[in-house]
Amino acid sequence: MTASNAPQKSPPAKVLVFVDLPGGELDDAGKGIISEASRLAKTLGCEWSAISLAGSENEAIQEFAPYGVPGVTLIEAGPGATDSLEAQGQLLALAAAELGASVVLLPHNDLGGSLAPLLASQLQAALFTEAIGYDSEDDGLKLMRQILGVQVAESKLWDQSVSLVLTMNPRVLSAVVLPTMQRSELQISPWSSSTAVAAGPSRIVERIPPDPQTVDVTEAEVMVSVGLGCNEQGFEQVKELTRLLNASLGVTRPVYDLGYAEFERMVGQTGKTVAPRFYLALGISGSMHHLGGIKDSKKVVSVNIDSKVPIFPNSDEGFVADLRDVLPLLIERVKSATGGTA
Ligand SMILES: Cc1cc2nc3c(=O)[nH]c(=O)nc-3n(C[C@H](O)[C@H](O)[C@H](O)COP(=O)(O)OP(=O)(O)OC[C@H]3O[C@@H](n4cnc5c(N)ncnc54)[C@H](O)[C@@H]3O)c2cc1C
Questions:
Q1: What is the mean pLDDT of residues 259-280?
Q2: I want to staple 120 with a disulfide (CB 3.0 to 4.6 A). Which of 72, 155, 165, 235 is the partner?
Q3: Predicted confidence (pLDDT) per residue in 10-42, tens digit
Q4: CB of 292 closer than 6 A to ligand 1?
């Protein structure tokens, strides 16, 4: 085969990760998506860098370094663009094109999920949202998404013939700095568009943090979950504890069956799959149907009166105790630690 009729190889991929800095801070979603970008670049064997909207967040940008981010492009959004999703999407698309990104990676949170379709349309790119995983395949990626809870995985192939806008399900993002990540000497490059961008009809008026009492449990950061080991009075105490801790309430199926909570709060195989930073399991035996829904939790702590229940070997810390004693004490302790207004 001569050089002229050899198959055309795509240019090497380049991953550009969009890092949102809500309130000028690098939050867990930001840290998680940076780690994911490093992993994705490794999977594709390519270069990567980060991009953010410029503001007054120098300290937050310095926090990128432990994750090995080689460079950060700071988009000077200018007045009128900071509160416009459409303008931000256009600026990001212009910068991504100029930087030669073949994959733009975002977390699938409120901002990332809204920017992704705008970006894909501007870049004429393929769009794959809420991925839970990927693998290298040929020169591209096999991308996976969960549908219908844990039961069905959908996969698609991206072959680098067009660029890709990819959002990751926040549930699979981990904010941990891995020992394999090498601290970088950050190269920070300001970027502004030579083309004027138009603000669209929608405006970002305010960014309101989610209310743990009402947030979808799949997005909960801290959860207190309750099983049949709690009676009705105990359940009221658990509700008070969740309010004091600013946590989200979860229940097992029998507790849902008793009518103590709505279906949306049920955790497990037929309920929701959760991935909080902290999962407190109170009076839960730890059936496989329940454990299936909590295996992605970062830390599980459990309390049960019976030392032999399966929740214990599936917990980071377990306490053999009677909830009728523990709950009033726990509430009292939390109240005194927070002045009762946590
Ligand atoms: C097809 C199928 C799907 C299912 N899907 C789900 C699902 O999505 N989610 C789910 O949760 N379940 C599900 N189940 C039900 C599941 O099999 C279990 O029955 C359920 O998880 C048990 O809930 P539990 O831990 O609250 O109750 P139990 O198993 O009865 O456990 C109660 C625990 O409380 C402890 N306890 C009692 N008194 C106290 C006390 N005073 N202090 C401290 N501890 C105490 C006991 O030692 C016990 O371990 C499903 C079942 C089937 C067949």
A1: 93
A2: 165
A3: 556 799 999 998 888 898 889 999 999 999 999
A4: no
Taking 60 as the threshold, does the pLDDT of residue 149 lie above it?
no
What is the Å distance from ligand 1's center to 311 Cα?
A: 10
Q: Whose CA is nearest to atom 27 of ligand 1?
A: 228
Neighbours of 131 (CB within 10 A): 23
**Two tokens, residue 148:** 């219908």
**Ordered structural domains, the chain, with CATH:** 14-191 (3.40.50.620), 217-338 (3.40.50.1220)
The residue whose CA is least distant from atom 52 of ligand 1 is 289
Q: Could you identify the atom of ligand 1 that is nearest to the CA of residue 228?
A: 26
Would you call 115 helix, strand, or coil by DSSP? helix
Model pLDDT for residues 51-78, shown as the tens digit of each residue: 998 876 678 899 999 999 999 999 987 7
Token pair recorded at residue 40: 């994705």
Residue with tokens 């009676």: 231
Distance 283 CA to ligand 1 centre (A): 8
249 CA to centre of own chain:
19
State the pTM of this model.
Answer: 0.72
Q: Per residue in 72-124, pLDDT tens?
A: 999 987 777 778 889 999 999 999 999 999 999 999 988 899 999 999 999 99
User: Residue of the nearest CA to atom 51 in ligand 1?
Assistant: 289
Distance CA 327, CA 230 (A): 10
Name the residue type at position 72.
V
**pLDDT, average across residues 259-268:** 95
**Cα–Cα distance for residue pair 135/100, rounded to 1 Å:** 22
Nearest residue (by CA) to ligand 1, atom 45, is 229
112 CA distance to ligand 1 middle (Å): 37
**Strand residues in the chain grouped as ranges (E):** 14-18, 47-53, 71-75, 103-107, 126-137, 140-147, 152-158, 164-168, 187-191, 222-226, 248-251, 278-282, 300-304, 317-320
